[in-house]
């Protein structure tokens, strides 16, 4: 019964994570592309303020409880908060420069970093042959899908301008930074959860409470021009209605950030970083379809081929993990009987 309850909780946590991640990606894409709002550190600070405010409101209503932050804990949590900020910021920049379909395909490179980090840094379970096969399939799908877009930049015969070349290289840099920061955040958070015994609400509060001063400081130092441009644009009476839509979108993004943070912490507490990454890869399929519908993005035949490899890799991984869980469950009664026999002999 316990195992079935654990399986159902894992399934619900991963489904909620997929929904929150998709909605958050679409909201950031909407914020950057439709409103052309470039002060991302300020937007992330507002999202963190909304998340902390919701936590405090729910705690005052005695619906939840979380550990209060002190100076020692804040310093200890600073690397996790920094990696969270980098993950969100680099993801937003990469989403702005890349189509969502291509962003989601390249994002699967994070899986390799998570699997290696979990195995060698966190002393996780051994990476079995089926898991290696699933990682290879997912990675190969990313290579197939992204090869056309990347190879054009380095083709001497292509009609790519210097500005397009620079933008492509910049997008690749943001994408690589996002993969490293996402893997770092996932591994750091999982390590901290295993050591501290924090609940999801403790993790959310520590993440965003420590991130707020960092985000505000960086925004003040780096985003003068973006904030000034937004102020001059929305101070015009004709743009007041658009300003209201922008404010509503930023607040909605804050609520979604609250939901996504909870789902990530929940999923990492009951499963592994690699499992979360594989599910995230499979989650790219509805995300790509939504991008086609909402942002009129297109998918080439190579994108569909890459998506097929990603689906195959995710299925292999799920079957491998299910088989490992079944073998572990079958081994438990035998281990108990053996121990019982030893006690009887003694």
Question: Can you walk me through this structure?
Answer:
Helices cover 84% and strands 0% of the residues. The chain has helices at 2-33, 40-60, 71-97, 100-106, 109-120, 129-153, 162-196, 200-222, 224-234, 240-270, 273-282, 284-295, 301-345. Mean pLDDT is 75; it is low at 1-5 and 335-346. It is globular and about 70 Å long. The protein is built from 13 helices and no strands. Helix 2 (40-60) packs across helix 10 (240-270), helix 3 (71-97) runs antiparallel to helix 7 (162-196) and helix 11 (273-282) runs antiparallel to helix 13 (301-345). The longest helix is centred in the C-terminal third of the chain and has 45 residues, at 301-345. With 346 residues, it is an all-alpha fold.
Short description:
Helix 2 (40-60) runs antiparallel to helix 8 and helix 3 crosses helix 8 (200-222). The model is unreliable at 1-5 and 335-346 (pLDDT under 50). The chain is an all-alpha fold and 346 residues long.
Mean pLDDT: 75
Helix and strand content put the structural class at mainly alpha
Number of helices: 13
Would you identify the regions where 5 or more consecutive residues have pLDDT less than 50?
Answer: 1-5, 335-346
Order of helices and strands: HHHHHHHHHHHHH
Q: For this entry, what is the oligomeric state of its chains?
A: single chain
The span between the termini is 32 Å
Please bin the fraction of helical residues: over 70%
How much β-strand is present in the residues?
under 5%
Main beta sheet, described?
A: none
Rg, rounded, reads 22 Å
Number of strands: 0
Shape: globular
């Amino acid at each position: 019964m316990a195992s079935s309850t654990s399986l159902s909780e894992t399934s619900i946590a991963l489904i909620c994570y997929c929904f929150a991640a998709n909605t958050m990606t679409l909201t950031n894409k909407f914020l950057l592309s439709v409103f052309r709002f470039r002060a991302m550190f300020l937007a992330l600070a507002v999202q963190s303020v909304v998340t902390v405010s919701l936590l405090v409101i729910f705690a005052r209503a005695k619906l939840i409880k979380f550990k209060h932050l002190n100076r020692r804990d804040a310093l200890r949590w600073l690397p996790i908060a920094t990696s969270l900020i980098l993950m969100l910021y680099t993801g937003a920049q990469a989403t702005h420069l890349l189509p969502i379909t291509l962003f989601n395909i390249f994002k699967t490179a994070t899986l390799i970093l998570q699997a290696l980090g979990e195995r060698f840094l966190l002393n996780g379970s051994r990476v079995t042959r089926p898991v290696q096969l699933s990682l290879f399939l997912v990675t190969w799908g990313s290579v197939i899908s992204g090869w056309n877009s990347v190879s054009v930049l380095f083709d001497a015969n292509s009609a790519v301008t210097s500005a397009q070349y620079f933008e492509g290289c910049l997008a690749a840099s943001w994408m690589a930074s996002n993969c490293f920061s996402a893997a770092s955040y996932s591994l750091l958070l999982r390590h901290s959860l295993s050591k501290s015994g924090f609940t999801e609400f403790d993790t959310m509060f520590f993440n965003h409470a420590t991130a707020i001063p960092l985000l505000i400081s960086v925004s003040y130092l780096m985003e003068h021009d973006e904030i000034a441009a937004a102020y001059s644009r929305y101070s015009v009476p004709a743009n007041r209605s658009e300003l209201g839509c922008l404010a509503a979108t930023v607040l909605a993004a804050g609520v979604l950030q609250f939901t996504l943070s909870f789902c990530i912490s929940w999923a990492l507490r009951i499963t592994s970083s690699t499992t979360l990454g594989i599910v995230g890869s499979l989650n790219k399929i509805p995300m790509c379809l939504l991008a086609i519908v909402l942002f009129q993005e297109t998918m080439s035949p190579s994108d569909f081929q890459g998506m097929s490899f990603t689906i195959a890799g995710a299925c292999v991984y799920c079957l491998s993990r299910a088989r490992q869980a079944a073998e572990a469950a079958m081994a438990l009664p035998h281990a108990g009987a053996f121990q019982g026999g030893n006690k009887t002999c003694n």
